[in-house]
Amino acid sequence: MSLKIYFSFLLTFIFIQVIFAQSRYNLSGTIRDANTGETLIGATVRLTGKTSIATSTNNYGYYALTQPEGEYDVIISYAGYVSAVKRIILNKDIKFNEELKSANDLSDVTISAKNRKNENVKSAQMGLERVDMKSLNSIPVLLGEKDILKTIQLLPGVKSGGEGNTGFYVRGGAADQNLIILDEAVVYNSSHLLGFFSTFNADAIKDVSLYKGGMPAQYGGRLSSVLDVKMDDGNNKEFRFQGGIGLIASRLKAEGPIVKDKGSFMVSFRRTYIDLFLQASSDSSINGSTLNFYDINAKANYKIDDKNTIYLSGYFGKDNIGVKDLFENNWGNVTTTLRLNHIFSDRLFSNTSLIYNNYNYTVRLLNDVTNFKATSLVRDFNLKQDFQYFSNKHTVRFGLNATHHRISPIDITTTQTSQVNPLSQEKRYGLESALYVSDEWAATDRLNFLYGLRAAAFSLLGPGNFSTYNASGNILTTEPVERGKFYKNYLNLEPRFSVSYLFNDENSIKASYNRNTQNIHILTNATSSSPTDQYVLSSNNIKPEIADQIAVGYFKNLQENNYELSGEVYYKWLQNQIEYKNAAQLLANSSVESELLYGTGRAYGLELFFKKKFGKLNGWIGYTLSKTERKFAELNNGNYFPARQDRTHDISVVGIYNLSNRWTFSSSYIYSTGNAVTFPAGKYTIGGQTAYYYTERNAGRMPYNMRLDVSATLEPRKRGKYESSWNFGIYNLLARKNPYSIEFKTDPTNPNKTIAEQTSLFGLIPSVTWNFKF
Fold first, then answer.
1. What is the pTM assigned to this prediction?
2. Is residue 10 part of a domain?
3. Interior CA angle at 536 toward 534 and 539, to 5°?
């Protein structure tokens, strides 16, 4: 079906709904937390009477329902909150806002069955995982720093990028094939300190959703997953402060009303102080070094009137690593999002966003011989317009977005004494745009659909000189293009479809198909993320990457939604995948596209998930059995070979036990097959130096990973509004030396023999953190 037909169908559908709406009335409003005024995302609003219907609040807490005239009970529920029930007579359009009280604030309230949602069974959405921010506080992590990215790595279908690394792989996709957004702004490098910590300060985060498959049509630009992170809006009732002091980092958050019940702000700051310990060292080669990061999250909102609310949010983060008189390395992200929510009518909701993001890094070598400075930049300007239309059994979303990319590859400047040659690479510009439409349709009480279409366009823009290469990497032609001229254009249609069938309120089956395309790519030979990863746009040589994924799953809840059980199988086809020639030079290479190879890929697997949601003991068990392969005519004789992220088995077990109101104990256990790697098949000597040669790509395998982490949280008795807690943790309790890298060396006692030397980062690491709130 063409894009024109799709949008014509949408307009016809809305017109028909308006005509038949004359005998129906609307119930709409916003659901908030009673203590903070924060909007609640995904709260369930149900109307029961002569007919029944239910919906969920959107990303801004807004909902709308349409029903025939009559008397109804309105039931509003949200996990961890006390449900609200009210009788209404629907004989006109009604605006009904509600504030829910957290069950944690009422000591005599437990989470009853009516508070427990079964959305995981009923919804047509597949591959969606939501991170419980309250549970996040208890899950043990490295050095006690709460970490969203390390937590999602404990979910089935998500593989860790390596020991201590925040990079992750989803259902066979590469690390750069994940769309990571913070308040709608793309985060290009989501790690601090070379991947040991993520850019997301959990104190400032309100909601985290991970889409592993069946991505709704409003998301696009990456192949494998969407990690949608939303910041806290701030408390519009009263001023509150919270923070924490740990072994290597401290945090502080302030929030409060701008105008009570109309506007609020939130500011959160985090910084490490490892460099302070370095300054105290008696070693003169160390005490002048730097090793730190900081990040700032800020957000403000104001309700102009009943139909308009404005939001402004931003993230500012920076890493600084340096060794005295040797080198300096710093990198960081800046994102800014300005949004306007507008309610055109009780049924039509609009969100308009202007977004800016900037990722840059600088590397300097300081000695006289190789003194140089290298800089790089990725900068985007993005305009998004999203609409939601609510009708009887449909929620229609449609909109557009346009992003202007500017990529500045590595520029190298040098001093007069440096032996390094200066280099200035051409900047690249691109325009990425999309139109989308989707419909979530409750066809019957048992059958639900989520379907849509996204039209994704990409244009490579001038100015620049664009070369075309042959298979050997030699230039065939070079074409100069003027500023603002369109040089290469791609258009891809991305259909999305999901369906669920309910056997009853506790059992369902689901199936989905989705296509995604990607036009911005990372070039790196490393197995983990690096601040110097090189970004490139689709071009006359690099075609858009394409992924088609199908998935089928069975979902079951037990004991009044206290337990969740699911099993999903998936198969993914990948086109226009990128690999590198043997001995490829990627860094500071003006002709880097000549080093690239293009091929296909496939990924398939089984994901099993069991979760206990409520009670003194809760947690989950996840298992993934999977295979990820790539195929390039120039490699491995044109046969399939394992991708770097291929791991056969992944197991994670997370347990949280609330012993009392004061003590909470938790642990996590992981086991995974080692990554696929390329080991040398032989060696030879040139000029007295040993060189290795390689045959099959990724034919070797790293040793397996296994780790057990534990933690305990003590919460002293509250004193008025003041709260505090102590978190004690042990990372890698078994002290296992998990592999980080393996280097091959010549045996010093026998030059004819080669030895493999494994590097491991962490043994047993204790941590303690004091958290406070008032």
1. 0.91
2. yes
3. 160
Q: What is the pLDDT of residues 563-615, one digit of tens each?
A: 999 999 999 999 999 988 876 777 767 788 888 999 999 999 999 999 998 88
Beta strand pairing call for 94-95 and 24-33: parallel
105 and 237 fall within a common domain = no
| C-beta atoms surrounding 732 within 10 Å | 22
Query: For the CA atoms of 627, 633, 634, 638, what is the dihedral angle to 10 degrees?
Result: 60
Q: Rounded CA gap, 511 and 127, in Å?
A: 10
What integer best gives the mean pLDDT of the chain?
87
pLDDT tens track for 30-42:
999 998 999 999 8
Q: Sorting pLDDT into bands at 50, 70 and 90, what band is 8?
A: low
CA dihedral 637, 642, 644, 647 (to 10 degrees): -170
Query: Cβ-count burial of 584 within 10 angstroms (0-12 exposed, 13-18 middle, 19+ buried)?
Result: middle
C-alpha 447/C-alpha 647 separation (Å) is: 36
Mark which of 117, 134, 151 sits at the end of a domain: 117
**CA–CA distance, 69 with 739 (Å, rounded to integer):** 66
Q: Are 126 and 498 in contact (CB under 8 A)?
A: yes
Measured distance CA(663)–CA(49) in Å, rounded:
44
Residues 277 and 422 in one domain: yes
**DSSP H helical ranges for 64-163:** 119-122, 133-136, 148-152
pLDDT band at 747 (very low <50, low <70, confident <90, very high): confident
419 in a structural domain: yes
Q: Quick one: DSSP state of residue 531? A: T
Q: What is the DSSP string of 320-372?
A: EEEETTTEEEEEEEEEEEEEEEEESSSSEEEEEEEEEEEEEEEEEE-SSSS-E
CB contact at 8 A, 256 and 247? no
In a domain, 480, yes or no: yes
List all residues 6 or more positions away from 409 whose beta carbon is below 8 Å from its beta carbon: 376, 425, 426, 427, 428, 534, 536, 592
3-state secondary structure of 104: helix
Q: Is 653 helix (H, G, I), strand (E, B) or coil?
A: strand
Parent domain of 723: 227-773
Q: CA–CA separation, 600 vs 545, rounded Å?
A: 9
pLDDT for 504-534, tens place per residue?
Answer: 989 999 999 999 999 999 887 654 556 667 8
Q: Are residues 110 and 236 in the same domain?
A: no
247-258: average pLDDT: 93
Tallying the residues shown for the chain, one arrives at 774
Q: How far apart are CA 362 and CA 410, in angstroms?
A: 9
Task: Read off the CATH number of the domain in which 356 is found.
Answer: 2.40.170.20
β-strand pairing of 98-100 with 24-33:
parallel
First-to-last C-alpha distance (Å) of the chain: 56
